[in-house]
Amino acid sequence: MPQGWSEADQADVFPKLISKVFANQFHEFFAERVATLNARFYQFHYSDISFKYNKSNWGSCSHTGHLNFSTRLFLAPQIVVDYVIIHELAHLKEHNHSPAYWKVVKKVMPNYKAQVSWLKDHGSALYF
């Protein structure tokens, strides 16, 4: 750590560094999980997977099929991670949160609302 860094600087930088280490460590496992769920349920085309220490959402899907996930998910239970993966994969078919989109999610994970509730109740504690 550079000499003279304030506690605020440390608090900002260290979680991001830990996030990058986790992303490198778990990228292959996570990518395999995305591929497994996609092959089992959807068979959609996606272009790439990346990670960010994102605090505003758990994942995103671009119109080009790029899937992005928050590294904070590495701290969540597997069923919750699977929900977020399914949520983002469903955006490859429906690029919105319309009723048609939620049908795509619900077909694969009928109890998805329990995972949404878990994220609302516990997601704020998932920080490095």
Q: Any overview of this molecule?
A:
With 128 residues, the chain is mainly alpha-helical. The protein has a single domain (7-125), classed as Metalloproteases ("zincins"), catalytic domain (Zincin-like, 2-Layer Sandwich), CATH 3.30.2010. The protein has helices spanning 7-42, 78-90, 99-108, 112-122; strands spanning 48-52, 59-61, 66-70. A hairpin with a 4-residue loop joins strand 2 (59-61) and strand 3 (66-70). It is elongated, with a radius of gyration of 16 Å. The two termini are 17 Å apart.
Secondary structure elements and pairings:
Elements: H1 7-42, E1 48-52, E2 59-61, E3 66-70, H2 78-90, H3 99-108, H4 112-122
Parallel strand pairs: 1-3
Antiparallel strand pairs: 2-3
Key traits:
Zincin-like; mainly alpha; 3 strands; 128 residues; three-stranded mixed beta sheet
Brief description of this entry?
The chain is mostly helical.
What is the spatial order of strands in the main beta sheet?
1-3-2
Give the number of DSSP strands. Answer: 3
CATH class: Alpha Beta
User: Which structural category do the helix and sheet elements fall into?
Assistant: mainly alpha
The termini sit apart by: 17 Å
How many DSSP H or I helices?
A: 4
Number of domains: 1
Biggest sheet descriptor: 3 strands, mixed
- Mean of residue pLDDT? 94
Overall shape: it is elongated
Q: What helical percentage do the residues reach?
A: 40-55%
